[in-house]
Amino acid sequence: MSIYDAAMKYQGDGVPTVVFGGEEYGTGSSRDWAAKGTQLLGVKAVIARSFEAHPPQQPGRHGRAAAAVQGDDSAASLGITGDETFDIMGLEREIKPQQDATLVIRKPDGSSRTVSLTLRIDTPIEVDYYRHGGILPFVLRQLLAA
Q: Phi and psi (nearest 5°) for 32?
């Protein structure tokens, strides 16, 4: 199944999705699509070893949770195969820039593991963007309120 078809199936079934990335997620000539593409596919969170430094491309500006693993963890070292389910704990309360969060990885056999994350929602305005579902809905709400 193509990535697009899988994303549409998950959206249709109400299943939130997560993308795992490596070093410098979002770097390169198509860096704006690292954030916009995940938004269009309905991805709810991006978890990576590190993120590209250019803030406008951060997934948080597009209403997606972005989190960096702490230490040497990676999708490979954590043994992620794609049949797990995930929860990001720490987003349910008031969010602060670069706060710690916890990734709960649940395997089909019922076992689970927790991993420490650092949210890459880096500034107070990015917290607002995230809470509003992205920069565009935030700006539109500001214009309507004026």
A: -65, -30
